[in-house]
Amino acid sequence: MNGKIFSNVNVMNKSLDASWLRNQVISENIANVDTPGYKRKDVVFENKLREALMSGRLNANELTPKVVQDKVNLQFRRDGNNVDIDVEMVELSKNQLRYNTLIEQVKHDFSRMKTAITSR
Prior knowledge:
This protein has 120 residues and is mainly alpha-helical. It contains three helices and two strands; from the N terminus they run αβαβα.
């Protein structure tokens, strides 16, 4: 039972790390919106998490977010840059909501653990 509780906390921690990294990557994309030749980057994590959940082999130590060059958004401007500021702003908002939701979930999990430990 304890292993399962802490496994969940570890997965949430990795998810928070991925969201934090994604925030940094989106910020970098926004900062380079006018840089000729710059290619948009993204973070790969959720698919790894989904695959681990589906396979039943969820090991938080194997869940590592990875920064990749975006292969989906290949529409380039004349200067070779493929960053769309509108897309980045939407992704930034989504990521902030995701991060805040994860923080609330972690707080809730720790509150439940505290209640279980301190109750008679």
